[in-house]
Amino acid sequence: MRNSTENKVKLVLIRHGATESNLKHSYLGKADEGLSQVGIFKLNENKNSGIYPQVDRLYTSPMKRCIQTADIIYPGIKKCVIREWEEIDFGVFEGKDYKELCHTKEYQKWIDSNGELPFPGGESREAFIKRCEAGFVRMVSDMKKKESLLSVGIVVHGGTIMALLSSFFNGEYFSYQVKNGEGYVCYRLDSGQIIDLKRI
For residues 187 and 10, what is the distance between their CA atoms, to the nearest angstrom? Predict the structure, then answer.
């Protein structure tokens, strides 16, 4: 049971806007692809509708699509880059879609494992989650240096959101999937507990 006197900071987790690879449903991990025109339009549309809460501090993945998204949603707010939050390395699946992969033995083996096997030539989910956790710890350490910090924006990848929430809020990894430009709002207590998770 939590102490009612604990301070809490609002966390706003947002998946980056759509890229051309996202629109084609291709695996996009380490490739540093920027936003598509469709993605930019949708982010501006979302922003103008008021769905994104205001934040006092902003943390992002170092990848172009996240930096661009942060600039659109939160212009003028200084970004702190968390390198551990790069998207997972999809290995030989990078840049390919289901149709290109579905008849290969490597892909079928990975599907049969329910995504538990490492991506061939890439990263395992376990290693990726640990990397994202380390980035979260680094963010929290930086947050402690800031006075009167009430809300924090986190602009990252869909995989990063799944990794962070399955680790710190519990639940199944794939249950936290979100579309481009969408995400979650929750609160982090002094104890480290994450509470009150809601979709944006």
Answer: 4
The DSSP bridge pattern shows strands 183-189 and 8-15 to be: antiparallel
Amino acid at site 52:
Y
Q: What backbone phi and psi angles, to 5 degrees, belong to 111?
A: -60, -45
Per-residue pLDDT reduced to its tens digit, 113-170: 988 899 999 999 999 999 999 999 999 999 988 777 899 999 999 999 999 999 999 8
- Give the list of residues 6+ apart from residue 72 with CB closer than 8 angstroms, or none: 17, 40, 43, 44, 47
CATH architecture under which domain 8-199 falls: 3-Layer(aba) Sandwich (3.40)
What is the CB-side half-sphere exposure of residue 88 using CA atoms within 13 A?
26
Angle, CA of 119, 121 and 124, to the nearest 5°: 35
Chain position carrying tokens 């339009």: 41
